Task: inverse folding
């Protein structure tokens, strides 16, 4: 970690503080962690008692509000996604219809605001067969830019073999998959007076990523590109502990027929994830990410509208000023513009970038 800190120009112990660098100017950012709440979806959330999401009051959203936010903070385009709880509060055909509604709504924005919006498809999980049908329609017909999956469904984490058929479908399409944390059921977490989005969301992202690696899912489906929310939760910080698991007594208990990862292989898998900057635009978070992967695997995320209260309030038009403690203008252009567009070719064509 010390070497990584010095490599990215962060202050080591007893070193002089690094001078804040100037970010690029203009409207150039491409936001891969941005949420939307279409009218019927938000109404259904409230009707089913979801007045908060992860402890944050369920926000309002409209294309006009999103464009106003984007214009103020220099965001050229957003890849929209449905946040937790997805459509899991509905069941059967209701869940399928709501997923189709949200995905069709997003596709409509490609026409009305062609250069400003992309989208990741929400799926009617945990129904795997229905989710395969919706993923095929959303990717092949609506031409959405990828899919969003929650870290877990009904307590079952990504990496579980029950999700294999869906992963096969996504791998065939070389899909970009945004992994977003899910709220943990009240009976499965400590009774602390803290909202889920503060800490629990980061831990759940870590659980999902770890399960995908130790079950071999990320090895079996190498053509899926996984983006981990919030700088990977705690994956970068825990990367060494995760990597050595198979070399401990756990290695003797590894399930038969499941590939037993090596330290080097686990490090490789961790380096292949994409990590977004949402609520993580700080020197500490970025140093951890840079210690496990290269800067071309970091993408910009705002987490708007859920992050509205955390954005700079002093008239700054930089939504993540902490990134300039780590990256110069050209590096920020990579992270906030070039890297996202490399992963989403349809959106890159639409914005002409």
Result:
């Amino acid at each position: 970690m010390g070497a990584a800190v010095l490599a990215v120009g962060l202050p080591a112990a007893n070193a002089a503080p690094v001078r804040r660098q100037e970010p690029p100017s203009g409207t150039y950012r491409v936001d891969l962690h941005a949420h939307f709440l279409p009218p019927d979806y938000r109404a259904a959330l409230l009707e089913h008692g979801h007045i908060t999401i992860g402890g944050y009051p369920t926000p309002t959203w409209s294309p006009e509000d999103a464009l106003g936010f984007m214009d103020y903070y220099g965001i050229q385009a957003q890849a929209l996604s449905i946040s937790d709880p997805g459509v899991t509060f509905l069941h059967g055909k209701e869940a399928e219809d709501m997923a189709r509604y949200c995905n069709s709504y997003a596709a409509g924005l490609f026409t009305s605001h062609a250069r400003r919006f992309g989208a990741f498809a929400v799926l009617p999980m945990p129904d795997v067969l229905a989710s395969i049908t919706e993923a095929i329609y959303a990717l092949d017909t609506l031409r959405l830019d990828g899919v969003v999956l929650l870290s877990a469904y009904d307590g079952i984490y990504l990496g579980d073999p029950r999700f294999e058929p869906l992963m096969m479908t996504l791998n065939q399409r070389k899909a970009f998959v945004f992994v977003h944390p899910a709220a943990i059921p009240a009976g499965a977490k400590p009774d602390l007076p803290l909202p889920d989005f503060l800490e629990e969301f980061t831990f759940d992202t870590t659980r999902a990523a770890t399960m995908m690696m130790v079950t071999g899912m990320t090895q079996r489906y190498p053509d899926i590109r996984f983006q981990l929310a919030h700088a990977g939760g705690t994956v970068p910080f825990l990367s060494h502990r995760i990597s050595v698991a198979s070399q401990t007594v756990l290695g003797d208990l590894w399930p038969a027929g499941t590939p037993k990862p090596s330290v080097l292989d686990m490090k490789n898998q961790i380096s292949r994830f994409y990590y977004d900057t949402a609520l993580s635009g700080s020197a500490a978070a970025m140093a951890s990410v840079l210690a496990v992967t290269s800067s071309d695997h970091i993408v910009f995320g705002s987490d708007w509208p859920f992050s509205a209260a955390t954005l700079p309030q002093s008239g700054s038009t930089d939504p993540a000023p902490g990134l300039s403690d780590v990256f110069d203008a050209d590096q920020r252009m990579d992270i906030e513009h070039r890297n996202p567009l490399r992963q989403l070719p349809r959106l890159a064509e639409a914005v002409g970038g």
Residues 321 and 348 are 25 Å apart (CA to CA). Confidence is low (pLDDT under 50) at residues 1-17. The two ends are 34 Å apart (CA to CA).
